[in-house]
Amino acid sequence: MRSVTYSVPSQLVGHQLTVHLRHDRLDLFLRSRFIETLPRLHRRAGHKGPLRRIDFRHVIESLRRKPRALLRAQLQADILPGEAWHRLWRQLLAAVPARIALEQQPWESAADLAARCPERFPWQKFPAMEAISRFSRSLGAASSGQNARTAEELQQLVQLETEAKQASAYWGEQVAVMQQSARGWLLFSQGDQEGALAAMQAGPPWRPAARSMR
C-alpha cells in the first residue's frame, strides 16, 4: 500500500480486500463486511529501506500450523512484537538445540552441533548466545574423547567471554561459567581429575537466574 507493507489476518489469504485509505488509518473490508482498522504508517523524509507494519496476531495461527516457519520467515524481525520477544527468540535459537543434544547425550552429535544456525541470524551481535552452542560442542567433544576439538571450542569460549562482558556483565559471567566448565571437562578427559575439579570450582559466583532477563 503505497510502498508500505501491512499484514492482514492469515485466514484472508487469497481474498481481495477493499481498503478505505484515511490519513491516520486503513479500514479493511471484505466485500461489504468490515474486517479491521490498521494504523497508517507514513514514510518520513530521509527514511530508507522497507516500511512495514506486521501484526504477529495476524500470522500466529499460520505459523503454528507450519513447523519451523518462524525460523525461516523473511519478516521474522517484524513478526516478533517487542525487544523482550526478540531476546527470548535469540536464547531459544541457541539453547534448544544445545539442551536436546546434552540431555539425550549423543555426544558425537553434540560435538557437531551447528554453532551459528541459522546463518542469517546476526550472531556477532550476541556472543553469549553463540557461546551456548560452543559450550555444547565442547562437552560433546570432551565426552567422546575428541580433546583437540574440545580445546578449539574452549578457545572460542575464551574469545566469546571477552565479547560478552563488553555487552553485559551478567552474560559475561555466564559465558565465564561455560568456559571454566569446558576447561574442567577437557582436563578430566585428559586424565587430570584434580585439575578438572579446580577448574570447575574457579568460575565466577552463582547468580540468580532471574537476572538473565534484565
3D structure, described in words:
The chain is mostly helical. It folds into 2 domains: 4-77, no CATH class; 83-213, Alpha Horseshoe (Serine Threonine Protein Phosphatase 5, Tetratricopeptide repeat). The protein is 52% helix and 11% strand. It contains 9 helices and 5 strands; from the N terminus they run βββββααααααααα. It has helices spanning 56-64, 69-72, 76-79, 83-104, 107-111, 127-143, 147-167, 169-189, 193-201, and strands at 4-6, 18-21, 25-30, 33-39, 51-53. It has a 3-stranded antiparallel beta sheet, with no helix packed on it. α6 runs parallel beside α8, α7 (147-167) packs antiparallel against α8 (169-189) and α8 (169-189) packs antiparallel against α9 (193-201). The longest helix is centred in the middle third of the chain and has 22 residues, at 83-104. The radius of gyration is 23 Å and the shape is elongated.
Outline the secondary-structure elements.
Elements: E1 4-6, E2 18-21, E3 25-30, E4 33-39, E5 51-53, H1 56-64, H2 69-72, H3 76-79, H4 83-104, H5 107-111, H6 127-143, H7 147-167, H8 169-189, H9 193-201
Parallel strand pairs: 1-5
Antiparallel strand pairs: 2-3, 3-4
Helix pairs in contact: 4-6, 6-7, 6-8, 7-8, 8-9
